[in-house]
Amino acid sequence: MKNMVQTMPKYQFELPDISLVVGAEAADIQGMHTLLQQEGCPNGENKFTDEPKAIYLDAIQTRIAKRNKANTNSSMDFVLCVVNHKAMLVDAKFNSKSVDNLKRHDIDQKIAASRVILCFDNYSLINKFYILFKNSVLNESQKNKLKRQFLQSPNYSFMTATEFYDLFE
Predict the structure, then answer these.
(1) Are residues 169 and 7 in contact, defined by beta-carbon separation less than 8 angstroms?
(2) Residue 14 has pLDDT above 90, yes or no
(3) Torsion-angle region of residue 116: left (phi > 0), alpha (psi -120 to 50) or beta?
């Protein structure tokens, strides 16, 4: 019989503060369930309620681009605030049918674009970036492929919405 080791959750939610993101408005704070659903997460895989909140970065980037009459910089999809005034960047790839098209350079550009609009007066950024996929796309073989593609870097974590939820449970 396998030795079952139960891992403790790593994070606890903190109410997001719109001062964390330059140009954020109250409407950019959204419930996690709605946000993941909006990004394409299947209902059966979305265990979150709307009680925990996140700041939707896509909406902010679009607003900034319109105001500046420029192209939208692609950012991570949302930022979460967790205890001890830490910020966590997350990108949702629920509409991807495969992991083959995901490139480290693209994720690094999204992280850089996100950092530009984050204000670190009261928060520090967790140096681990979460990329979420549907269960049907992200099996162990695909996780290993991504780890190799991202050079085994511990800064990138590839998981399903359910696994992500378990980080907070």
Answers:
(1) no
(2) yes
(3) alpha
